[in-house]
Every structure is written in C-alpha cells, then in structure tokens.
What we know:
Layout: H1 7-10, H2 19-32, H3 35-40, H4 50-60, E1 62-73, E2 80-91, E3 94-107, E4 110-124, H5 139-142
Antiparallel strand pairs: 1-2, 2-3, 3-4
Helix pairs in contact: 2-4
Amino acid sequence: xxxxxxxxxxxxxxxxxxxxxxxxxxxxxxxxxxxxxxxxxxxxxxxxxxxxxxxxxxxxxxxxxxxxxxxxxxxxxxxxxxxxxxxxxxxxxxxxxxxxxxxxxxxxxxxxxxxxxxxxxxxxxxxxxxxxxxxxxxxxxxxx
Length: 144
C-alpha cells in the first residue's frame, strides 16, 4: 500500500491531489521519520533543525493508527480545505490520541499544511498489557 499511495508523494514523483491525500502522506511521513517531507509540505518557513527534530520524534514513538473524522473542501478543484483526524501512538508507556483539525491550502498547484488545532489525550498503559501498536509484545518490552 505504501508504494502505491505515499511513496510517490514522499519522493515528489506524484504530489497530493487533495488535502486529505496530503494529510495521509504527512501521517505516513511521521511514522517513517521523514522530517524533510514534513517541512517541505508545510506552508511556513522551517525553523533551523526542524526536519531533523520532527523525524527523530516520529521514529521515537510507536504508531498505532489514524482515523479521519471529517473532510471539508480540499478537493482537486479547491483552494483550501480542512481535515479532522485522530492519530494514535504509544509514547513513554502511554497511548496518546492526538486529535487535530488541520487547515490546508493550495499554493503553486501543490497542497500545503497551514496549521492545526490539536489536543492530546494520554492513557497510561500497564507495563504488562499487550502493546496497542500490534507488535505482540508487552508494553514494557515494546515502548517502555
């Protein structure tokens, strides 16, 4: 699935056609630790070291999944759009549900991430519980 969907976006072979496609490719970039892609698809200028920091953080957590809750605009003929989603990951023994309402805009024919309103909920996991990332390991062995 990655090779058909997000890999062409990450290599710039095929840009995202919609705001939703860009959001999904950005989630995938977080899971792969691809900081340069995250910076390149952002509308604002990057801060020094931002690509490296984003990539390192993405590699440091255990990604569990993504749920898209709503999409407003952001289609092939639109100039802007909004995607509301929840990304889940395991970090420091807790399951984190990061819910965000992200704004996107098209600039020079390419979609860019503008900003997001995010909130995170943390649920402490027991060390002997199965890890929600699907590894089959206990939390203490997987993402302690």
